[in-house]
Amino acid sequence: MNFIGILLHKANRAADANPAIAQKLIEAGTDPVCGRAADFNAFWQAPLALWLPVEEASGVKLE
Fold first, then answer.
1. Residues in CB range of 1: below 8 A, 6 or more apart
2. pLDDT one-digit tens code per residue, 21-31
3. How far apart (Å, rounded) are the C-alpha atoms in residues 26 and 14?
4. Mean pLDDT along residues 32-52
5. For the residues 38-62, what does the mean pLDDT come to?
6. Contact indicator for 28, 18 with CB cutoff of 8 Å
7. How far apart are CA 61 and CA 63, in angstroms?
8. In the chain, count of helices (H) and strands (E)?
9. CA-to-CA distance for 41 and 45, rounded, in angstroms?
10. Cβ atoms of residues 13 and 34 within 8 Å
11. From CA 43, how far away is CA 22, in angstroms rounded?
């Protein structure tokens, strides 16, 4: 799964405020989800909590 977070000031939540922008994102193959920064942080932290211990236990080192 890949994702991109686009953080905007709450006054400029484009996909929320303008359905045409949301439609363009859908046409580009995305699944736009609007929410608060805290929601995005929770979304981001969940896979980190799952996979960081696996990566650390594996001993893999990036060069």
1. none
2. 778 888 988 88
3. 13
4. 85
5. 87
6. no
7. 6
8. 3, 0
9. 6
10. yes
11. 20
Q: What is the CA radius of gyration of the chain?
A: 16
Supply 31's token pair. Answer: 């699944």
Q: Which 8-state DSSP code applies to residue 11?
A: G
User: In this structure, which amino acid lies at residue 9?
Assistant: H
Residues 6+ apart with CB under 8 A from 46: none
Which 8-state DSSP code applies to residue 29? T
- Taking the C-alpha atoms of residue 33 and residue 16, their distance in angstroms, rounded to an integer, is 9
Q: Which residues contact 44 (CB under 8 A, 6 or more apart)?
A: 5
Annotate 6-37 with b (16+ C-beta within 10 A) or e (fewer).
eeeeeeebebeeeeeebeebeeeeeeeeeeee
